[in-house]
Structure formats: structure tokens, C-alpha cells
Design a protein that fits this description.
The protein is an alpha/beta fold and about 250 residues long. The protein has two domains: about 1-120, Response regulator (Rossmann fold, 3-Layer(aba) Sandwich), CATH 3.40.50; about 140-240, LytTr DNA-binding domain (OB fold (Dihydrolipoamide Acetyltransferase, E2P)), CATH 2.40.50. It is about 40% helix and about 30% strand. Helix 4 (about 90-95) links the parallel strand 4 and strand 5 (about 100). Helix 1 crosses helix 5.
Length: about 250
């Protein structure tokens, strides 16, 4: 896991780094990385999981950085550090996790960090122990498919690709929530990201995934059933929304 701190105030930046490192000192494979500008964050090549981000900085401001991040990554937890609440409305657009108002308090930083780590490790995310030693937390629904090749598994998500040592059987156990299916001895696919089924499976990003002859009829049936469940829950949600809207309209008339 990577925790990023971006602030052009070197004293504040170093103080935050010490606080974060002290809190995560007993947790394995967590790295705290500092940036003095928004440009450095956008140029950083590794995946940041939690980012403490100042809004008012020289060069590009923190809100611009957050918007650019959201073009590629909807999972990063962004915690704004700011001297005012001027950008609260824009914060909703970039899905800010929290605002911390300067002058910052130690308890606010620690509480925000605890809550962010808890959010990352919720049940809708899976922990990836990558071959390069990094530990990442990825939303399960962001996984498109998993491929076994050369004694390692390639986890393809909507945003990046990761390599792990887990077997496909171990991945099947981890992803046993009904949305994933073993289509081939070398592939597990996320049913919700399938675009087309023919001699191969076409995923929504255009990539092809193999289907074994034995699984051809099964996958079509399973996709049909899975799609039916999704449509049912969508319609049920729509009906519930309609009832709420009618109730709100009724009250607004008084």
C-alpha cells in the first residue's frame, strides 16, 4: 500500500509523513511517499492508495490534480488538506473522502488515516500481493479477468494489470461471490464486464478471453441468469426510487 502526501509546505509535509509512518509502523508493506507539487503526483508511476492532498499550491492546484486522477483512477482515496471550504462542492465531483481544515490536528490525521485504511480493506475490495512485493487493494468489480501464464496469474483490471503468485483455484475461492466464472483452464472472467460471447469472450475493453468447448453452453446460460438478476435488481431499485420521488413530491406540495 502506498500513502501519498502532497503539500508545498515542507514543514507540514514532513510532519504529516512522520505521523503517518508512526501510525503504520506495525503494518507490513506500507510506504509513505511525499510530493512537493501536483505535477509530481501526476507524474508518479506507481499506484497511490491514499493521498493527502493540499488544494492551494504553486503550479497546478489540488483540485486540478484530483480531477486528473479521477480520469484514470476512481479508487484512490483522496483526503483534501485546505485552509478554507471554498472547494467543498467540487470535492463531491471528485469523490473526496474527507476534508481536513488547516491548522491541522494530529487526531484528525490519524482518524482519517484509520478510516481510509478501513475503507480500503472492506469486503468489496481484494488484497493483491504482487510479485514485486507491493500490496494493493483493488475493487473486486474493477477486475475484468484473471489469466494463468508462466506459473503466475495476471490480474487485469479496468485501470491496470498486476502479477501475483496465486493459482487460479485460489482466486476462485477469493472471488466466490457469483460474479466470476472459470471459462477455461487459464481464465477466470468477471461476468459483469462481458461484452460479447462467440468463439471467444470479448470483454468491455475489447480484449479476448478463451472459452473451452466444454464451457461454451454453460457460460451462455450463466451469463443469461446473471444478467437477469442484474435487471431484476435494477428494476426493483427504479421502482423504489419512483416511490421515494412520489413521496417527496407529495410533501413538497404542502
Amino acid at each position: 500500500m502506498i500513502i501519498g502526501i502532497c503539500d508545498d509546505d515542507v514543514l507540514l509535509r514532513d510532519g504529516l509523513k512522520k505521523l503517518c509512518e508512526h501510525h503504520v509502523s506495525t503494518m507490513p508493506s506500507i510506504e509513505v511517499v511525499c510530493f512537493s507539487s501536483g505535477e509530481q503526483v501526476l507524474a508518479y508511476s506507481s499506484q497511490i492508495d491514499i493521498l493527502f492532498l493540499d488544494i492551494y499550491m504553486k503550479g497546478v492546484d489540488g483540485m486540478y490534480v484530483a480531477r486528473k486522477i479521477r480520469e484514470e483512477d476512481e479508487n484512490m482515496i483522496i483526503i483534501f488538506i485546505t485552509g478554507s471550504l471554498d472547494y467543498v462542492r467540487e470535492g463531491y465531483i471528485v469523490n473526496a473522502f474527507r476534508y481536513i481544515i488547516k491548522p491541522i490536528k494530529k487526531k484528525e490525521i490519524i482518524d482519517s488515516l484509520k478510516d481510509a485504511i478501513r475503507e480500503l480493506t472492506k469486503n468489496d475490495k481484494v488484497q493483491l500481493e504482487c510479485i514485486d512485493g507491493k500490496i494493493l487493494f483493488v475493487k473486486i468489480n474493477d477486475i475484468l479477468y484473471i489469466e494463468y501464464i508462466d506459473r503466475k496469474t495476471i490480474v487485469r483490471t479496468k485501470y491496470a494489470t498486476y502479477e501475483t503468485r496465486l493459482s487460479l483455484k485460489e482466486w476462485e475461492d477469493i472471488l466466490s461471490n457469483g460474479a466470476f466464472y472459470r471459462t477455461h483452464k487459464a481464465y477466470i472472467v468477471n461476468l459483469s464486464h462481458i461484452e460479447e460471447i462467440g468463439t471467444d469472450i470479448i470483454m468491455e475493453n475489447g480484449e479476448k478471453v478463451e472459452i473451452s468447448v466444454r464451457q461454451m453452453s454453460n457460460i451462455k446460460k450463466i451469463c443469461s441468469e446473471y444478467g437477469g438478476r442484474k435487471i431484476y435488481y435494477y428494476l426493483r431499485s427504479c421502482r423504489k426510487t419512483q416511490r421515494i420521488c412520489k413521496r417527496m413530491l407529495k410533501f413538497s406540495l404542502y
